[in-house]
Amino acid sequence: MTKTATLLSATVLAMFGLVAMAFVSVVPTAGAVALVDLEDIEAGDLIRGESYSAVYYYGLDGFRYVFPNDKTYFTWYSDFDDVKWITDGDLADIQIGGNVTYKPGVKMIKINSDPTVYTVGSGGEIRSIPSEEVAEELYGSTWNRQIDDVADGFFSNYTMGSALEFASQFDADAEEASADSIDIDKELMTFLTVSITDSGYSPDELEFSAGRAVRFVNNGDTKHTASADDGSWGTGTLNPGENFTRYFREADNYDFHCAYHDSMTGTLIVE
User: Fold this and answer.
1) How confident is the model over 87-132, as pLDDT tens digits?
2) Which of 35, 51, 97, 124 lies 20 to 30 Å from 170, alpha-carbon distance?
3) Can you name the residues that pair with 111 across neighbouring β-strands?
4) pTM of the entire structure?
5) Are 206 and 248 in contact (CB under 8 A)?
6) Quick one: CA dihedral 36, 38, 42, 43, positive or negative?
C-alpha cells in the first residue's frame, strides 16, 4: 500500500467532470467485474477502481498516470477490453505520477485560447506548424479534421520544441511507430526499492543515476519513515505494509533517517 503557427480552428475539447489532477471518466459506467489483486497488477496495465470509471495507466515506475480525456486515451487504445478492475482502496494506494499526453504522430493539437497548431512527438514534445500547406503535407487533405483542442490547463503537460519550417522535419508515421507504450514515450524505468525493517534500511546506501524513482517499503512491525536529514523531503509515516515512492532527479547525496528511530539512517547517492 502507498501513502498517499496559425491554422483553422479545431473541434472543441469535450470535457467531463474533473477530479483531483483533472482526470476524467473515459469508460462508460458498467457493472462490476471480477476484481484483480493489487499484487497481480503489472507495468503497462490499464486499471480502474470500483466506484469511478476513470482509467489509468500503470507505469514501470510504480505510479498511475491519468488520461486527461477520452481523446487522449483513444490515441493509445481502441477500446477498453483490457482494463483491469481493482478495489477503490488499492487504487488509492497507487500514487499518481502525472498525465498521459497524446500518442506521438497520431493527431495534431492546439489550445482553446490560441489558433497555433502543433505536431506531437515523443515525450510530449510539440512543434508549431507554420502553414496549412505544411499541415497538408504532414496529414493529407483531411488535415483540418485531425486536430484536437487541448484545454489550456493540460497544455503544460507538453514540452515546447523548435518550430517546424518544412514538413520533412517531422515524420508522423515514424513517431507513432516508435511509441510502443506509454512507458517508452515517457522513458519510465522500474523503481528501485529500499526495504525498511525494524532494525534498519536495506540497503542503507543506494547508488543510482539521476531520474530514477525509489520506493520505500515498510516491511517492519512498527511505524517508520524515511525523512531527509535536511528536511527537504520525506515519506511521511509508513505503517507496516505501506510504501511511498519518490523521484530523485538531481545529482546529490541524500541522507535520511527514521523519525521514530534515530539510529536508523541511510544514504542515496544520486549521480
Assistant:
1) 999 999 999 999 999 999 999 999 988 999 999 999 999 999 999 9
2) 97
3) 114, 150
4) 0.85
5) no
6) positive
